[in-house]
């Protein structure tokens, strides 16, 4: 939580300067006046710049164009190819020859994702995902992740 407060404070404090730099360990990020990444620098990949159009949509990562549909969904960024449905839900993402597919309920919440033939199912409490489940060798669903929501305990 503290990291997000510090980032917000840094962005607000330096908003008038039109540039903000954030060092988060292995990468430094520079932001434009709108809070978008302007540049990312890390020791492995070097510097990568990000460009945006007048509507504040990402149009380039380095020398690679980012192509979006009329709704603003990213179709390709040079590494991934995405397919979206009529409700703007991500249906599939292909990267490095691996395709991940996704299904959704009538409420628009993601119900499953399949990667390399392994399907993960999502369980919700209202609109909050609380559990991930996968089939075991016997075909029974088993919890593989549980997410708890609520206030943190206090001491005292």
Overview of the molecule:
The protein is mostly beta strands and 156 residues long. The protein folds into two domains: 1-65, no CATH class; 69-151. The protein has one helix at 2-14; strands at residues 20-23, 27-31, 37-42, 46-52, 58-61, 64-65, 67-68, 74-76, 80-84, 90-95, 98-104, 110-115, 118-125, 128-135, 141-146. The strands form three sheets. The protein has a seven-stranded antiparallel β-sheet, with no helix packed on it. Strands 1-2-3-4-5-6 form a six-stranded antiparallel β-sheet. A two-stranded antiparallel sheet has the order 7-8. Mean pLDDT is 84; it is low at 1-18.
| Quaternary state of the chains | single chain
Work out the helicity level.
Answer: under 10%
What gyration radius follows from the Cα positions, in whole Å? 20 Å
| First-residue to last-residue Cα separation | 21 Å
Individual helix count: 1
Average pLDDT, all residues: 84
Largest sheet: 7 strands, antiparallel
Describe the global form: globular
Secondary-structure-based class equals: mainly beta
Count of DSSP strands: 15
Amount of beta strand: over 45%
Strand order of the largest sheet: 9-10-11-12-13-14-15
Order of helices and strands: HEEEEEEEEEEEEEEE
């Amino acid at each position: 939580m503290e990291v997000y407060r510090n980032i917000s404070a840094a962005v607000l404090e330096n908003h008038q300067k039109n540039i903000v730099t954030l060092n988060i360990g292995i990468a430094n990020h520079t932001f434009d006046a709108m809070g978008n990444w302007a540049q990312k620098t890390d020791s492995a990949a070097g510097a990568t710049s990000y460009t945006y159009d007048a509507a504040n949509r990402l149009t380039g990562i380095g020398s690679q164009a980012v192509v979006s549909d009329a709704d603003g969904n990213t179709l390709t960024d040079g590494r991934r190819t995405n397919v979206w449905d009529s409700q703007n839900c991500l249906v599939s993402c292909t990267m490095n020859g691996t395709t991940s597919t996704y299904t959704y309920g009538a409420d628009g919440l993601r119900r499953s994702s399949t990667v390399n033939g392994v399907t993960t199912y999502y369980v919700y409490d209202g609109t909050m995902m609380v559990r991930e489940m996968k089939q075991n060798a016997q075909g029974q669903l088993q919890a593989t992740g549980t997410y708890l929501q609520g206030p943190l305990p206090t001491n005292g």
